[in-house]
Amino acid sequence: MNKFYLSLALITAFSYADMSKDQNKTTHDVKLDEITVEATRTQSDLSKYAGSVGILKSDDLKAKTNVIEAIGDIPGVDIGSDKGREIGRRFYIRGFGSGDDERVIIMQDGVKRSVGLYSNMISTFRTDADILKRVEVVKGASSILHGSGAIGGIVSLKTKDAHDYLLDDENFGAMLGGRIESNHMHSARAAIYGRTPEGTLGNTSMDALIYGKKAWHGKIKLADGGSYSADPKVPYNFNNEMIRTLFFKGGVNFADSHRIELGVFDFNEELDTLWQTLNNNDEDLFVKGKLEQRDLTFNYFYKPLSDLVDLSFRAYKADSKYNRGWEWDESMSKGNKQAVYVNDEDRYGFALKNDSKFQTGFLEHNLVTGVDYDNRQEDALWIREYKDLTPTAGFNSHPNEYNNLGLYFQDIISWQDLELTLGGRYDRYERKVKKNTSTKFTDSRFSPRVALAYTVFDSLTFLGGYSESFRAPTPHETSSEGYVNRMYYYLPNPNLKSETAKEYEVGLSFVKDEIFGDDSLYLKGVYFYGKIKDMISLKAVPELGTPPVEPGDRGLDPSQYGRYENVDDAVRHGFEISANYKIDAFRIGSSYERLKVYDKKTKEDLSHHASKLQLHLGYSPLRNLDIDFHANHYLNPHSNPASYVSRGTTYYYVDKHFTLADVKVTYKMPKGVIGFLSGANISFGVNNIFDKQYINAAGTTTSTNVGRGRNFYLDLEMRF
Fold first, then answer.
1. pLDDT in tens, 449-482
2. Helix or strand or coil: residue 95?
3. Which of 222, 137, 71, 73 is nearest to 612 (CA)?
4. Closest Cα to residue 582, out of 528, 640, 628, 633?
5. Whole-angstrom Cα distance, residue 378 to residue 396?
């Protein structure tokens, strides 16, 4: 830790030394109306998008340990209610996220990720924040262009390429970087990259990036001494993780209008952890595990001079696996000697899209059309050894297969200050459970979207939109049977219907430059209201009696039967308001969000959320130096119901306010300063400055999930 504080002091001193040379210069000139891409699959003005989108860039990601922590600062996104391990994080987007397979779409360079690899004991995007140049979060059902399931929203992760590392007119370069955190984390990374000099290959050029990283994550210090109500308090969560990332992206441009890209992403995490990484802190449940993610991508782009054609084709193959197990001696757990549990997921798919711009009379069109296909196959291996039983393999609703085919179009039609969006998506899905006899489920649906943006006085835009999205039942929801967990004896339900979300959004935005001089104001507010018809939920069915005890002397004695069912319509409504103001070297931003998701019939919450108020202050006193302060204030959630009963014990949902605050300093060292630090990118700061606890609204007053403690960090990246 002494080295950490010394490094922090040296970097601060260097910053002030450079400040004294040039007190009046600043290059922090950022337009406040971002361009959104993933929400519409084409470049469009965020202020005219009838929906809610959050965008993080590379510097924003430096402020947090991982991507899930980073998106928690976006309005409409909530995190927490976990042990803080890299492999086990919870997140919620418009009410859905961890544990909601197929309700939130996660993509890295267009390659889809499942949230938890079936087990729901993990929740990680299986990515590396340091190779990401942009994260875009589209909230709600407003995007029809990315496949069925976007009921909660979409998280799109975009990786860097060689051009994102090369400085000025360089053709070749290298990067060395590292990060250290006071809360038991450190990492090292390196990259080499280059492009062919202009003119050396005629009208052909090439570029390539090779990147590698290792990161170590140790025990997690909890906020304010540990557990909220435990006596004695638990100050740390057990943790030991080592993550290795390898990444390659290369491209060839030829004939002035063609580009081919190849990508390889390899993520490998070895860990000593606990059986349920989200919930457990009992070292008697210690396991060794390995998590893997491998993506192979091929992209082809064709952009001739004509505005009618901007074509892209993507094909990918992605494999994921989580393998963990333990060994116990004869004196433990009724003779159980060994257990191995493996979740395996393989994906492949393709996507073809064209972005066309043209005019019909006085109307301007931006027409996006496309088709995509995704195949997902899951399997599980569950081996247990007992004194009197032979090993068993295979588990529950595995192996299974998902097939998804979609065709979509979207036309953004503009005339003067009016912008009309008309679009739709046709999805057809097939689900198979491949056991002794194959069980198949199929369905199809067309989902429309219409939106309107009308701008008056060149600054004020009125917004309105209607969207639909649907989610097919998973093989686990239709076909789970038997002893899946300690809570229920599962019964299959092959008659489940698909969920359908129908959502309205209305709002306004205001964008104005030079109000009082060199300043900019961005204001946007969106109200949303919708229903999720035939929402699928696991329900207890005690009227069927008491289930049998599992054979094998494992001790599982479920208290009741459980079955996935289509419940009455769920209602989701709320609003988000955000404002950003910049004048000279100062920036100030604030947002407020409110969300309710409840059963239309009973009025009881289906998921629990606290309203969140955010404040952001920024200052750029000199060239390349940014100082930022960010605070999240979570209001009392007032959950309905206020408590629940589990195994005879009553638990009360948390009913307190919480405030977390962070500070970040980012400095880009000018060339020719301090030798080896010339051109370096330096980020340092403190997360949870005041070491305050935070319990997610889904947590209870007895929760030990109080969040990470105060964390100092320093991130240094040097380029040569």
1. 999 999 998 899 999 999 998 888 999 999 988 8
2. coil
3. 73
4. 628
5. 11
